[in-house]
Amino acid sequence: xxxxxxxxxxxxxxxxxxxxxxxxxxxxxxxxxxxxxxxxxxxxxxxxxxxxxxxxxxxxxxxxxxxxxxxxxxxxxxxxxxxxxxxxxxxxxxxxxxxxxxxxxxxxxxxxxxxxxxxxxxxxxxxxxxxxxxxxxxxxxxxxxxxxxxxxxxxxxxxxxxxxxxxxxxxxxxxxxxxxxxxxxxxxxxxxxxx
Amino acid sequence: xxxxxxxxxxxxxxxxxxxxxxxxxxxxxxxxxxxxxxxxxxxxxxxxxxxxxxxxxxxxxxxxxxxxxxxxxxxxxxxxxxxxxxxxxxxxxxxxxxxxxxxxxxxxxxxxxxxxxxxxxxxxxxxxxxxxxxxxxxxxxxxxxxxxxxxxxxxxxxxxxxxxxxxxxxxxxxxxxxxxxxxxxxxxxxxxxxxxxxxxxxxxxxxxxxxxxxxxxxxxxxxxxxxxxxxxxxxxxxxxxxxxxxxxxxxxxxxxxxxxxxxxxxxxxxxxxxxxxxxxxxxxxxxxxxxxxxxxxxxxxxxxxxxxxxxxxxxxxxxx
Lengths: 195, 320
Description:
heterodimer, A: mainly alpha, Rna Polymerase Sigma Factor, Chain: A, 0% strand, B: alpha+beta, 4-stranded mixed beta sheet, 66% helix, rod-shaped
């Protein structure tokens, strides 16, 4: 979850006046979380980079319409989810495969990015960890868009149910049912890892 | 709580989102139901696996790219605003020009400025303007004018009034000039000799440099014999009649060029009264000054004074 900034309200006030430097501070605090979500949603690193950039540009453009009911991070997530939906639609109209390209996640860059920091496991353990990660990611990609989004927002980004409901613009009950259904599906897909 | 109810709440139970009472009920059920506990453990491990995924770090330079994109966008907006402001300025200028052209007064009053010598031309020009404008208006009415036409309809009568007012003014001016000219030439109303601006002399009245022309009235018994007397008198004084008998009889006057120094003799020959002679002498003093000014200025070469053009009007005595 994105760490709340003590000076966030002040930064937002400055951003509303068109201060790009203040917005730069917000970007540096939130870019990792937004990029992570977008990458998991779209699967392609380059596309995720462009989409993340677009998310922040849209956020800056709409910052005056931002209501302080939710946190800025939650608001950014909602923009990111919508951006991912637009991107998927664009892909569909281009008659491309809408499924997440696992090959993108297998690239060397991604391997470096996904390496858990601090630990230096043995080569065999590392291969096993990579395989486990790959299976989990693959299982996520096989989920429907709505279920995947809920799982990512809850288990990857760590949002509570209310925040997820705000991001998705749906009820808390819908979030609960979608999350439960997604987890049951994942349990079935990852049964090999659960033994 | 039965197994089905417990299983449906497992996801929320894992997340700690259940209310305290339900949370306790699920906890108790899992403690006594092995199948549900196995289900719970599998689900809990699934969630743990997903949560174990490493977080992807934002790519290098993403922040910088966002800043560059925002700056570029701001610059685009500024240039767009500037562009629109520029377009607005041009439009305003164009609109002003249109308004100025549309509502500026007609050029007729400015035409009234040339020297008086061009009076006839001026009057002709005004006359044609005044004659044309109503036609234009009528054409506008017939052809169902638009907004511009309606504006023109409003404005043009004003323009016409101006033209109409300026023409008589010019005529008055010319008449005033003639009066002043005549006042210079004649101080009273002579009974038989009148110095007045004839229609032909109106043009010369407007041209101060042009020589004045005298008008004499010759009273005779009949036009033919009077004409013969005039011809004889003029020829005798080495003057020259300038028109044929036929034309002179038609217009009842004849033009003659008489040497300046023979004017007195002509008046005497034609038996003009003393008063007339006095009048003529007074005019003579003024007219030659302007007529002779050019030769005097010419310098050493002494040319003979130019002949005076005299218009002799034939008046037949009534009852004789």
